[in-house]
Input
Amino acid sequence: MIYDLIIIGSGPAGYVAAIKAGQRGLKTLVIDKKYVGGMCLNWGCIPTKSILESAKMLQKVRSAADFGISGIDTATLSFDWQQAVKRTQQIVSKLSRGIEFLWKKNGVEFLKAEAKILSPTQVEADKRVFETKNILIATGSRPAPRQDFVEALNLEELYSLESLPEKPLLVGRGANLVELAQFFNMIGKEPIILADELPLIPSLDSYLESFIQKKLKKDKIPLIPIAEATIKDKSIVFKDKEYPFDMAINVSFRDAVLPETVPDITLEKGFIKTDRFHQSSIPGIYAAGDVNGKSYLAHVASAQALEVIDTIMKVELPREDRSYPLNIYSEPEMAQIGMTEEQIKAAGIDYKVNQYSLNANGKALAEGTSEGFIRILYETKYHEVLGVQMVSEHATDLISEAGILMELEGTTFDLARTIHAHPTVAEVYMDAGSIE
Output
């Protein structure tokens, strides 16, 4: 049997590519040595967001009296870690079953084994050799191992803990680090951030970076640059103050997870180098998602995977990569899409920024979630929107409206003319678009 496509890895790139390939009539085999759904579903995106929602629920219950709800003794409230993990596992299981159902529905085969690429047309797994016309590497990435904290807990191990540390030290950089720090803080722990580098979240507009650093300070979460710290056995010394911790957690930037390959695939900074069509240096072998180093975002991995299927099916792609949202599931959430202010300045574009506060939004005030704002960056000649940034409850959902607008080369005038339902938080788009 000759497959049209063998996919190595079943994360957001692999499983999405498999479903689309099956729908297009391609004979497809997915090979993964461990998880259906990859890191994102099993111990990354989904579990992290699940426990964050548990922590946010605790916060809401604490403020119930403000909404006229009496009878809750906030002094007796506590966080049940095991119940939060149980709920998380139920969500993961349901989503995994959904993926397997869609694979079966579309004729996709799955093999749990470790794969080795023998040639552009041969993959070895489970002591068998499979023939194929195309190969997609979608093996993702993992937090880079640390030399300074060799005993640091990996995120994958977090959900197997019986109980959580009281003073966790989060070492690394990125959105996951911020999200975990706020999670621990919301459930009453005392997290410490030891940042490999600042800004904390690369690619984030400096205005949003400034906001999150101020928020961490307000929440009394220490932010310590590792270059300015002294590391002791179980404490960090920074500016003559000692910060004890009882467990280090590795939230480092990630390294590519590379399958064994006999063909010499070209790497760039440890990731598979790919072209606009996500094809590697070897024709017929593609790489999508974290493993190609272009992005660490699940939705980008899925978008790249779909483009690989289009390429195999001879569908013409846009000449350039599309804009994609950067989401941070913090409290409150943050999201951006398009160009940052720094990028616009570097490009020499004459621009303006319209900013509108959620403090003037009726729905946000009614929900008690008025901390935040929207920023619309646009060029001054035609008012075409170049970038949008949001801080608000559900900003990670609301940012999609900006994505559609920018895909259509929309303007602030288009936003101002679009009727938004009242009261909704989405009205801030119309309000910000109306500012002259």
The mean pLDDT is 95. The domain at 165-251 is CATH 3.50.50.60 (FAD/NAD(P)-binding domain). The longest strand covers residues 385-392. The CA atoms of residues 232 and 244 lie 9 Å apart.
